[in-house]
Amino acid sequence: MKRHLADLGFTNVYNECEDFYARLSAHDFPEHDVLLTNPPYSSDHLQKIIRHVTASGKPWLLLVPNFVYVKEYYRSATRRVASVRTQPATATAWCNC
Predict the structure, then answer these.
(1) What global pTM score does this model have?
(2) pLDDT tops 80 at residue 93
(3) Cα separation values, 88 from 15, 32, 64, 94, 97, Å
């Protein structure tokens, strides 16, 4: 992921295998300009990450399934954000699976 983003011009990328929520709880989050992630769809991960990104005041991009956009937790959290763009499922996307 770091190499791909560097090829696109993003040379300062933090991508480490660590517990995102532990870092968040400890207020030990790395400095960043934008958060880009594909969170797990199970349990309450989506609600937690959406709550974090909408409160952070920083740009973010989450790769989530379409069903998220109609959920009350998403609509409620993004209502407070100045600009949220939802990309339709028919869009072409790069995936490093």
Answers:
(1) 0.73
(2) no
(3) 27, 27, 11, 14, 20
